[in-house]
Amino acid sequence: MKTYLLDKYLKKYTRMSERELAHQVKSNLWFTPVLYVLFSMILLSVTLNGDLNYGMGNKMISYFAVDYELTLSLLSVLTAATLTITIFTFNLVLVVFTTFSGQFSPRILKNFISSKATQRVLGIFTGSFIYVLLSLFFLNKRITEYYFAVPITATFLAIFSMATFIFFINHAVAWLQVNQLTDDMKKEALGIVKGTLKDELDSYKVKDFNDTDADIRNGKGLQIKAGTPGYIQLVDFISMIEEAKKDDIMMRFEHTIGSYVFESTPLLTYWKKHEMKIDEDKYLAFFSVRKKQTEVQDIEFSINKLVEVAIRALGNYDPKTATTAIYQVSEVLVSISLVTDFSNYLADDENNLRLLLQKRDFNHYLYNGLGYIRHYAKDNVIVSTDILKALDLMAKSLNPRDYQSVWDFAIHTALGFENLFLFEQDSQQFYLALYNLATTTNNQKDYEKFLKKM
Known about the structure:
By secondary structure, the chain is of the alpha+beta class. Helix content is about 65%, strand content about 10%. Among the domains are: about 1-175, no CATH class; about 190-195 and about 315-340 and about 360-454.
């Protein structure tokens, strides 16, 4: 049974792509501590070899040499102390997890786990504990009476662990600050935008291509079903385009990354101009369908974590946190507008259409980013005014192509506030923000028409 579970566990990782494996390793809490444990064992072998085989304790002057009894006592105390501080640190991690889940969102816990600081701190504690424990086990009075390398190293590791513990408390407190939290999530989202929309797909996206297969696409295509239920986590677009070129076929994606599919759900529809059999399993291998969503390529999932922070803040009567999250979402939307032309056609190096993606324009990302927040802030004039201010700030940096989308979103936001202004200053600030946006997007005439309707 144990062999079966181990084999199943190993197969899970061997089937992952390099990108998926890197994300999985980064988001797991065990990988970095294992590396530190291995390093501590190497360090242990070096120090024990120095004391037991080369007699470093006997060669040192009496001031630096430590006898067997003192070394034994020192390692015994440090073993218990290091274990205590390690357990306390893990307990602190659980407290942070609980706070994150209740106050913000359970989906952002992975950000704390994948933090290099968190993983390194746990690695240092675990490695130090393993070092002092094994050192205690290998002490041998019959080989040598005095030690130097082992007690000195153990003492240094104890001091280093204490300094690391102080750092970790500061790190946990800093992570619970909203500005730090949302900024890290924003950077994660910006990285996905750059990695997926720009670096990976932009070189294949086209608007004009050799559309010699238009008649074929109008016919009924062949479908490739998912075969496994779950979320579409990752798609190897580049390899798929190369294989489609070799097989001389054109494909259409029926779903987007982040969509949930059933076992019988069609993932791809393809058209071919020949009677040769297509290896459909080959194309299924380019998809990663798992039980949960991840941020590897899923831009909307990454944005949604910021959206959840804003919505939770509105429910907790914390408008400042909501506003911070709104501006972070807006910055991600600006990046999306600037790095892509929203073409859903992917062509090969000969400009022949190979992949047809689901259509996603700026309206889609704008609604998924700020639409949900707008819905929950519909009775909060101050936060809604901040949404308009964020839209104006966005418009000053957006591709002019997306001005109209921002303006339409703002008008629909304003339509729900005819009778909700309790104070005149609320009304003034709200319409001032709307006017500034109209000026930025060159919609002054539409703004005047809107005021007349009101």
